[in-house]
Design brief:
- This protein is 13% helix and 17% strand.
- By secondary structure, it is an alpha+beta fold.
- The protein has a domain of 120 residues: Barwin-like endoglucanases (Beta Barrel).
- The strands form two sheets. Strands 3-7-4-6-5-8 form a six-stranded mixed barrel.
- Strand 1 and strand 2 form a beta hairpin.
- It starts with a helix and ends with a strand.
- 17% of the residues are buried.
Length: 209
């Protein structure tokens, strides 16, 4: 059972990929694709945009959005705005990100025997430079923390990680050394009032039993 399901009083069924139409991206190409529904759902589940109508002024996906300019006071075209970290955030020198893995869909399938046998144990990835400064080696028990919370996991040193980054595989369960949500500030995004999952800073130290 995933960490989210363990907190639930009632669990409702969700549609699978064959029971809904959707607009999807790709991990391997720059194209957006339309995926039609191929079977009827047995229940009354619904998803947003199944009728391909969007709550925009044009009713379509908008790359140039006058609504964004009028409602949020931002550029009508997508752009990048550097993060302005607070003094407290600057106390933690490492950027914390949680990329997807090829073995799971977020927190799903982590309990499957074939996944565990094929992928092995997942861990928190650090660059050799950051690990050397902190006297951390692969397999070392570590604590990742900030003002919001902490998690205990194992380290894996990797040349694929650039200095200044800490990577926790997306969907790693609490009993596997996960718990990335413990490190995410309880704030809303400035556009849309969604959960602000990104731009989190942390520190990592070794844990000696």
């Amino acid at each position: 059972m995933t960490d989210t399901a363990a907190l639930a009083d009632i669990i409702l069924p969700a549609k699978d990929m064959f029971e809904q139409s959707d607009i999807i991206g790709s991990y391997w190409s720059p194209y957006i694709q339309f995926k039609p529904k191929v079977i009827q759902s047995p229940g009354l589940q619904q998803i947003a945009w199944e009728d391909l109508k969007f709550e925009t002024q044009s009713g379509k996906i908008e790359i140039y959005s006058t609504e964004a300019r009028e409602k949020w006071g931002i550029s009508p075209l997508p752009g990048y705005t550097p993060v302005n970290y607070t003094a407290n955030e600057k106390m933690f020198p490492l950027e914390f990100i949680t990329p997807n893995t090829g073995s799971r869909v977020h927190s799903q399938f982590g309990n499957l025997k074939i996944i565990k046998e094929t992928i092995g144990e997942l861990a928190v990835l650090l660059s050799p430079d950051d690990a050397r400064i902190r006297n951390i080696t692969t397999g070392q028990k570590i604590k990742v923390f900030n003002k919001t919370g902490e998690l205990i996991s194992k380290a894996q040193i990797s040349n694929r990680v650039q200095p200044g980054l800490v990577l926790l595989p997306n969907g790693l369960w609490l009993n596997e050394g996960g718990g990335g949500n413990n490190l995410i500030a309880r704030i809303e995004t400035d556009i849309g009032f969604g959960a602000a999952f990104h731009d989190n800073r942390v520190e990592v130290i070794r844990v000696d039993d």
